[in-house]
């Protein structure tokens, strides 16, 4: 698993197994519930975890000369270019929607994108 020693992988599995949290606001606190995913806010080890988690996004475009990606924690920027606006727009659509593309990766990795933040 990407060269990570098995004891570390097992430790991470135990660390996130059976987690519970509560939400508190004003004078109200929810009952405990299991969060559906994600990392603990402020967890210093999250920096390392995001390197592995987001690394799969970069693998989608690694071998293409006209695409590049930049990742920082839970922010990602994927860029492509072509000879015209129309072709660039088409290529972005392919990068997102084709089998094995970004949206499929997101579904498989319990990831949601803020599509309203996308820019063209």
Automatic annotation (TrEMBL):
<protein>
    <recommendedName>
        <fullName>Reverse transcriptase domain-containing protein</fullName>
    </recommendedName>
</protein>
């Amino acid at each position: 698993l990407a060269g990570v020693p098995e004891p570390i992988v097992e430790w991470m599995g135990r660390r996130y197994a059976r987690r519970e949290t509560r939400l508190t606001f004003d004078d109200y606190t929810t009952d405990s519930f299991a969060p559906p995913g994600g990392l603990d806010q402020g967890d210093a080890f999250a920096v390392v975890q995001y390197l592995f988690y987001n690394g799969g996004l970069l693998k989608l475009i690694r071998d293409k000369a006209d695409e590049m990606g930049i990742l920082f924690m839970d922010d990602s920027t994927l860029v492509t270019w072509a000879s015209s606006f129309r072709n660039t727009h088409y290529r972005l659509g392919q990068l997102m929607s084709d089998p094995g593309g970004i949206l499929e990766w997101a579904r498989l990795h319990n990831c949601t994108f803020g599509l309203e933040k996308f820019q063209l």
